[in-house]
Design goal:
The protein is α+β, with helices and mostly antiparallel strands. The chain has helices at 43-51, 97-102, 112-122, 138-150, 168-185, 196-202, 220-225, 230-236; strands at 5-14, 17-27, 32-36, 58-63, 66-69, 82-86, 156-160, 188-193, 205-210, 213-218, 240-245, 250-253, 256-259, 268-273, 278-282, 299-308, 312-319, 325-331, 341-346, 352-355. The strands form 5 sheets. A 6-stranded mixed beta sheet has the order 6-7-8-3-9-10, with helices on both faces. Strands 15-19-16-17-18 form a 5-stranded antiparallel beta sheet, with no helix packed on it. Strands 2-1-4-5 form a 4-stranded antiparallel beta sheet. The protein is elongated, with a radius of gyration of 25 Å. It starts with a strand and ends in a 17-residue tail after the last strand. The structure holds adenosine-5'-triphosphate. Adenosine-5'-triphosphate (ATP) is lined by residues 14-15, 19, 37, 39-45, 194. One of its GO terms (biological process) is quaternary ammonium group transport. GO terms for molecular function: ABC-type ferric iron transporter activity; ATP binding; ATP hydrolysis activity. Residues 5-236 form the ABC transporter domain.
């Protein structure tokens, strides 16, 4: 099946810098794709090229197989059959909620009133139809903006940080409502965000972007559980990072041996693990837990700090073997005193081993860097 929205090799150069560099992506009807990445990586510029607000310098944008932009073609945004929603909502202040929603529908459109009414009901604002934007809360304005963007039944929805103006309390609820309506409408959705949680919550597919390029595309589960590199892993959560050196396709660590297939001898490697995949155990007069196949060998440290985070506790251990700090999270309340000896093991199926990309070679092979 041809994707409804196809970006192929999109490139945008500003002042000799490629801020978007060969981006390709396909989005099917009813699918939400989140373009996720740090500030300045080129997400909005990509979206703006898809919308037609920014000219496409190289590559192409196709909607339902039709070229709407390439080096020689440029359909304006209103001729592309897209809905757009940006972070400032940009409602017309002199129009009521109902008039805002109906704005993109022709005055002679027979179904106009019914469509406006239906959308206002679905976003839970039927009672607010005659209110002006300044009489609505931030969350209500966001919902009017959503209804307005969806009113002409766009085949593609382009959304740039559409929830960033909302306070935290409202945001989750509105995200869920928005997702439900987007799914009902069946548009292909490209949503820009710099928040991993938002992408995990909303996306069928996440496209992770860095320095103008897409570095990984996949379902949230796959991106989280099989990151392409340490930076991708660190984008979604705090991580622990151990360094190792390859010898005979493996590296030895105080937590046991890790395989390093296809890596040459003497190569530096990084072993990444998220804090929730470390296991803590009591000291038992210095003996610690026995090694197991799934958790490898345990290593000892002393509690440097323990904090209660709400639904879990974060324990930082200073490791006996090199003085580095490793972080482990434990469900519920676990607040051992500073200096308490504890043993730490790593869930080996949750460790990622990557060639080290960093330029500076570390002095201690087991040094744990601050989380990315
Ligand atoms: N019109 C422009 N002229 C020159 N540089 C620009 C222009 N628009 C964007 N840039 C630069 O391109 C880079 C990418 O910007 P873009 O807005 O696409 O990033 P982003 O990933 O959406 O960031 P954010 O999450 O902060 O919005 C930035 O370094 C930005 O300064």
């Amino acid at each position: 099946m041809v994707p409804r929205l196809e970006l192929e090799d999109l490139t945008c150069v500003f002042d000799d810098v490629a801020v978007v560099d060969g981006v390709s992506l396909g989005i099917h009807p009813g699918q939400v794709t989140c373009l996720l990445g740090p500030s300045g990586c080129g997400k909005s510029t990509t979206l703006r090229m898809a919308a037609g607000v920014e000219r496409t310098q190289a590559g192409s944008v196709r909607i339902d197989g039709r070229v709407v932009a390439d080096a020689t073609t440029h359909l304006p945004p209103e001729a592309r059959g897209i809905g757009m929603m940006f972070q400032d909502f940009a409602l017309f202040p002199h129009l009521t909620a109902a008039e805002n929603v109906g704005f993109g529908l022709g005055r002679k459109d027979a179904g106009r009133t019914a469509r406006v009414q239906d959308l206002l009901e679905r976003v839970g604002l039927a009672e607010m139809a005659d209110k002006y934007p300044h009489q609505l809360s931030g969350g209500e304005q966001q919902r009017v903006a959503l209804a307005r963007a969806l009113a002409p039944r766009p085949s593609v929805m382009l959304m740039d940080e559409p929830f960033s103006g909302l306070d935290n309390r409202l945001r989750d609820e509105i995200r869920d409502q928005t997702l439900e309506i987007l799914k009902e409408e069946g548009a292909a959705v490209l949503l820009v965000t710099h928040e991993p949680d938002e992408a995990m919550r909303m996306a069928d597919q996440i496209a992770l972007m860095r320095k103008g390029r897409i570095v990984q595309v996949g379902a949230p589960y796959n991106i989280y559980n099989a990151p392409v590199d340490a930076e991708a892993a660190g984008f979604f959560s705090d991580i622990n990072l151990l360094h190792g050196v390859v010898q005979d396709f493996s590296t030895d660590t105080p937590f046991g041996q890790f395989f390093c297939p296809n890596m040459r001898d003497e190569a530096d490697v990084e072993i990444i693990i998220r804090p929730q995949h470390l296991k803590l155990d009591f000291d038992r007069q210095g003996t610690g837990p026995l090694p197991t196949a799934s958790d490898g060998v345990a290593a000892r440290g002393q509690v440097a700090r323990a904090r209660f985070m709400g639904h879990e506790s974060l324990v930082e251990l200073m490791m006996d073997h090199d003085g580095s700090i490793l972080k482990a999270t434990v469900p519920g309340v676990f607040l051992p005193k500073t200096g308490t000896p504890l043993w730490l093991s790593l869930r080996r199926d949750r460790c990622f081993v990557f060639p080290c990309k960093r330029q500076s070679r570390v002095t201690s092979p087991w040094l744990n860097s601050p989380a990315a």
